[in-house]
Request: fold
Amino acid sequence: MLALPAIVFIFIFYYIPLYGLVLPFKDYNFTLGFWHSPWSGFTNFEFLFNSNLVQIVRNTAVMNALFIVVNVIVEVTTGLLLFELGKRSSKVYQTILFLPYFISWVVVSYALSGFLDPDLGIVNKLITALGGQPILFYNEPKYWVLILVLCHVWKCLGYGTLMYYAALTSVDPEYYEAAKLDGANRVRQAWHISLPMIRPIILILVIVSIGNIFYADFGLFYTVPQDNPMLYPVTDVIDTYVYRALRVLGDFGMSAAAGLFQSVCGFVLVLLSNYVIGKISSDDKLF
Amino acid sequence: MKTASTTVAGIGSGKRKQNQQRFYLSVHLLFILLCVIVTVPFIVIVSASFTNETSLFRDGYGVWPKQFSLDAYAIAFANSKQLIQSYMVTILATVAGTLLGLWLMTTLGYVLSRSDYRHRNKLSFYVFFTVLFRGGLVPTYILVASWLGMKNTIYALFVPALVNSFYVLIMKGFLKSIPHALYECAKLDGASELRIFLRIVIPLSTPAIATVGLLTSLQYWNDWFTSILYTDDSKLQTLQALLYRMLSNMQFLSVIQPAGLDSSMLPQASFRMAVCVLAVGPLLLVFPFFQRFFARGLTVGSIKG
Reply:
């Protein structure tokens, strides 16, 4: 009764779009509308598989996998170090590291253009000052794997660190005192107490991100490379492709086909990773 | 933790103490370095916005303006119509979206957390399923744009994103910690369900509401995608969408429309950065004060269960 508005809302905005499952099999026409558009069988999928599906799926999965690995390593490490510093002195660092979390990818793009701009960017100014040739970053896909990973870490560092730090502060200090009496040094304490204690939260976060591995961060991949076609070999992901097919090409069928592909893969992956976690430790299972 | 380490250090030799100090020093240095890395991009934007345009073109971006100038801001203020309009749109969408969204998510989370609600498990799955499986962008777009007729209306900016299933589950996790006996007592005293919700649940769950509310409002505030997806009208441009259009479009003159100025006279790069500062600055000054709520929310809501 109380929840009825929300239930209706979820139905409208989450369940009605599921009709889109049949959309890829139609030759959708905006003026004809959904019901009157003719069926087209698998043509949309054929188009999709014949275009650059492999590339966009690979970009999505590989980049996200890189993000997961790099983020976990960096964030857990900074979280542990922050924890070592203790509550009072880490406060300032927490606040500063958290700042990028508050801004959008658009603003990140502004900042990045300050570094990578071909003529005015700081990086190229440094390169030319050292006698090198300026690099046209916005034309060279090969640099963008690194750039995107750096941007992602930069933006998410504070959030992730804080999450692990918060998990660490809830660990009973008696463990550490006992370990100290036994003569365990800092590294051993971190390895044998801190890490196992935050293992559940690490696992959950990693699994959630693995389940979302086919969903790319649209803002990062679209605005940060400034939607530059020359960078598509690295930066074009499923989400940007779907968006372009929809808004630029107006190809609803193909766009929906890519979207469906994404939904199905994501769904399977979540179930799979949950199953795997259940095998490792059934306590950490998500559902 | 800290007291423990000092007592142990007291037992240890002087060398050990020295080692410990060296350790702290290096960790501090590391974090200072990290903080510098994190802040430099912000400084570059601010510095560029205060730099004279010709100097900017000669020397490039930097962390300190070589030739200080307020020209960019002067022009931005003289032509602030679009900026103000965008501020209004963004504030409206953020406030409306956050309040409505909070109401919907809290009520749903509350119902899910009530252990005496019969269809609890079914309803939980109903919500959780949307996390697992989504219709995708295209069907949603058709739904919002053509079936609900929200294209080019302010509603498109906040209505589709009102309920986030993930936040509902966070809410549920938190509300579960309220003892059920409380509801029983209130019922015995003759309180209606709505009264219980308003007088007991909401006051007791303020930390969770604050957290989810802040996350939601941040999401609305930083949203540019919905704006460029559903609106073509510059009157409905959110701040981030305005920034996005300026970034992607070299002819952003058409976006911000400075009156009576030749385009060649306009300081482009610094002007752009100035608008960026004006659009983002106020938020960046405000949000860090609420950071503890974000931190608390992370510990509050174990998503499980």
